[in-house]
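Need residues for this backbone.
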């Protein structure tokens, strides 16, 4: 019998919907033994960095996202030498090679194409499964200049070069 051991963050609204759905579809319909616990977000982060925790739990619901100023941020996410960023422990030499080529080229067009292929490969590996997405809005004041916003830009990166025009 398949056992899924799920560790999730506490008090996350989407889990009120997802856990009953997983219990019904995985547990009742597929016969999966679903074991679950919830912890504070920082505890969950610590657990995903600890190799011993991976023996105890095999699914982590983190409500985290891929963000960064550019697509190159994904290179850290799949670095097989970093349990700090590569929480999935994915070690795919082909994917790493694709990412290294993508970050090393001086051609933006070539880099975009290489990252596209790398994202397809990462999706095929399915080390991370997006469960849901939020819709965010960027609001601007006309006096604020130099903001860098977009779907892969963190708040800190967005305001790094911002200034107020007088």
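Answer:
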């Amino acid at each position: 019998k398949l056992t899924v051991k799920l560790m999730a963050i506490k008090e996350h609204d989407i889990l009120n919907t997802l856990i009953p759905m997983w219990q019904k579809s995985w547990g009742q319909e597929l016969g999966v033994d679903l074991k679950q616990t919830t912890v504070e977000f920082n505890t969950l982060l610590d657990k995903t960095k600890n190799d011993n925790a991976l023996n105890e739990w095999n699914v982590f619901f983190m409500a985290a996202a891929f963000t960064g100023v550019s697509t190159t941020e994904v290179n850290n996410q799949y670095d097989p030498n970093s349990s700090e960023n590569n929480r999935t422990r994915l070690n795919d030499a082909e994917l790493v090679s694709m990412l290294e080529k993508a970050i090393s080229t001086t051609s933006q067009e070539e880099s975009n194409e290489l990252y596209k292929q790398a994202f397809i490969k990462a999706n095929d590996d399915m080390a991370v499964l997006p469960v849901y997405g939020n819709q965010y809005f960027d609001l601007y004041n006309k006096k604020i200049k130099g903001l860098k916003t977009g779907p892969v830009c963190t708040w800190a990166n967005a305001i790094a070069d911002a200034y107020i025009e007088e």
